[in-house]
Structure to design on (190 residues):
């Protein structure tokens, strides 16, 4: 029972945890977080060593191999799911439209965002390009505004590693920001 059921389940769960932690570690590295990424790497490797050690002790148990692969695949999914729900960092939102953007600009500025507008030339003629840098936990609200004021606008969103000396809405305390980032549900699109 232990060798064919419980051990593979433990390997499966260990892989889910270590791959999920690894996914988060990569995100923290890409965002320049020098403190938490190495700590996560430490735990990721320890868990991986425990899982691979059990496989090496049970080389004839095919269920351990299946559990290892299944845990990796599931851990990848779980890690991506967690990353989608973490709303940390900042993003650049670029809105491109041939329509008037003044009402959208006014609304964003009233909410405390800095907005930069550039007149440009596109395939269909004159167009406006509007830029704003926002905190990721405000992304949903900003995209709703874009949809409300300019439903046919083309927009792109880029992650920003760091931003400084800009105009951001009022700062939140570190504790409230952490709570929002970790526990606020995040949905993409409609």
């Amino acid at each position: 029972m232990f060798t064919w059921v419980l051990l593979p389940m433990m390997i499966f769960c260990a892989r889910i945890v270590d791959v999920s932690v690894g996914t988060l570690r990569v995100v923290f590295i890409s965002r320049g977080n020098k403190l938490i990424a190495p700590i996560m790497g430490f735990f990721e490797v320890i868990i991986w060593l425990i899982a691979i050690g059990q496989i090496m002790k049970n080389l004839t148990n095919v269920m351990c191999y299946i559990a290892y692969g299944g845990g990796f695949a599931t851990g990848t999914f779980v890690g991506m799911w967690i990353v989608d729900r973490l709303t940390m960092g900042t993003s650049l939102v670029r809105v491109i439209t041939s329509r008037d953007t003044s009402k959208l600009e006014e609304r964003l500025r009233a909410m405390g965002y800095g907005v930069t507008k550039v007149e440009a030339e596109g395939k269909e003629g004159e167009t406006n390009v509007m830029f704003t840098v926002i905190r990721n936990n405000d992304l949903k609200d900003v995209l709703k505004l874009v949809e409300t004021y300019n439903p046919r606008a083309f927009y792109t969103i880029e992650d920003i590693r760091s931003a400084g000396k800009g105009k951001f809405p009022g700062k939140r305390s570190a504790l409230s920001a952490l709570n929002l980032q970790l526990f606020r549900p995040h949905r993409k699109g409609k």
Summary: The helical segments are 2-30, 36-57, 62-85, 102-110, 139-149, 174-183.
